[in-house]
Each structure stands twice: as C-alpha cells, then as structure tokens.
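Example 3.2
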Amino acid sequence: MNIVIEHAQDLPIIVLSGRLDTATAPGFDAEMAPFLAEPHPRILLDLAGVTYISSAGLRSVLHLVKHTAAHGGRLGLVATPPHLLEVIEISGFPALLDLYPDRESALNGTAP
C-alpha cells in the first residue's frame, strides 16, 4: 500500500495504490492518525490505483467518513475502479459519501 497526501484547491487528496486489506489497513490507519488530528470537513480519497479492498479496508474508509461528518462535511471517493465500486455499493457506502468519476469532478463538486 502506497499513500500520498496531496492538496488541490485547499482540499486534501489521499492517493492510494495497492491493496487496502487486513494486512495494510492497520498501517493506513496509523498513517492517517496524525492527519486526522486536524479537522478536515472534506477529504478526497483517490482510489484509482487500488487493486483490492477488504472489509478491513472498508472500515478504514469508514473512519474517514466519520471524521469528515464530525466536521460537517463528507468524504469523496475519486476514480474508484469498477471492481471496487461494486464492493462499495454493496456495502451501502454511497449513502455516506460522494462518488466522483475523476479528480476534476471532485474538485468542482459535481457527481454524475
């Protein structure tokens, strides 16, 4: 799992690549802890490079959802590959976050 935090238009964008699963989710959570010590009402999570997500990975995403909600905002998922989108939809996550096909749509706040 590779994690890069970028910024665009004053929004943090967490770019992930690799697998977000039982083995990598604890490391992701640990790396996000200092970042989440600050209030972020809107975070974009770019999943274009993620090849697999497990229930442990979904739990990590849920932590980001709860963080943004606690600060009056929402988490946005960007460029989610179709095989991951299916898992996210089955899990009921679309009611909790925003889905964007690409970064431009996410930065403009326009979902399809």
